Amino acid sequence: MGNKPVLTDIDQLPVVEEFFSLQGEGFHTGKAAYFIRLGGCDIGCNWCDSRFSWNPDIHPVIETKTIVDRVIDSGADSVVITGGEPLMWNLDFLCNGLKNNNISTFMETSGAYPLSGKWDWICLSPKKNMPPLIEMCKIADELKVIIQDKYDFAWAEKYYGMVNNTCKLFLQPEWSRFDAIIPDIVEYIKKNPNWRISLQVHKYMHIP
Predict the structure, then answer these.
(1) Integer Cα distance of 133 and 126 in angstroms
(2) Could you tell me which residues come within 8 angstroms of residue 166 by beta carbon, excluding any fewer than 6 positions away?
(3) What is the dotted CATH code of the domain comprising 12-205?
(4) Alpha helix (H) ranges present in 51-166?
(5) pLDDT tens for residues 165-189?
(6) Nearest alpha carbon to residue 153 among 202, 117, 191
(7) Domains of the chain: which residue ranges?
(8) pTM of the model
């Protein structure tokens, strides 16, 4: 595991982008939410579609209060924190600010770093380059595994065995290999109905 970057003021975060849109994948697909993408990731998946977020030094560092104010102004009732890897940062201040304004908090994480912040929903998406911590597996509300080839099904089952028994299970085709891998995912779920499929519907709708 790489060294965790430190900001001079933990009441600030490196923000790559913010936007109000619809959740496009996983259990909450179709739900309106305000998205905050944080900079910084040392996992380095070769198929990552947000490589622009990896280097936190090239993104503006914004005070948490400003971020919360933007969410309130948007009218959104829930926020999705994604990255990069959001748990590289202390998210206590951000979650407290959102919760104090009755805004639900959702997070997408690899689970490779310890938890900070208070969450209504944690989506765990484990990565082979830097596997998740056991304690993150136990508290995940949703397990979403990216399927790039047939060997990833065994990886998915490994983490199915680590999450709690109320965790929602999703297999998501890696976007660039969608046509090649989708038949295998369909057949796998037919034989293993505890899993569901997650599709990146926002890409079909051409929305962020």
Answers:
(1) 9
(2) 141
(3) 3.20.20.70
(4) 64-74, 92-99, 134-139, 152-160
(5) 999 999 999 999 999 999 999 999 9
(6) 191
(7) 12-205
(8) 0.92
Burial zone of 196 (CB within 10 Å; 0-12 exposed, 13-18 middle, 19+ buried):
middle
The DSSP call for residue 59 is S
* pLDDT at 10 (0 to 100): 60
Structure tokens that stand for 100 in this block: 């104090």
Rounded to whole angstroms, how far apart are CA atoms 60 and 47? 25
The two structure tokens encoding residue 41: 């990731």
Percent of the chain at pLDDT above 70?
A: 95
Q: What average pLDDT does the chain have?
A: 93
What is the reported pLDDT for 53? 84
Residue 118 and residue 113: Cα distance in Å, rounded?
A: 15
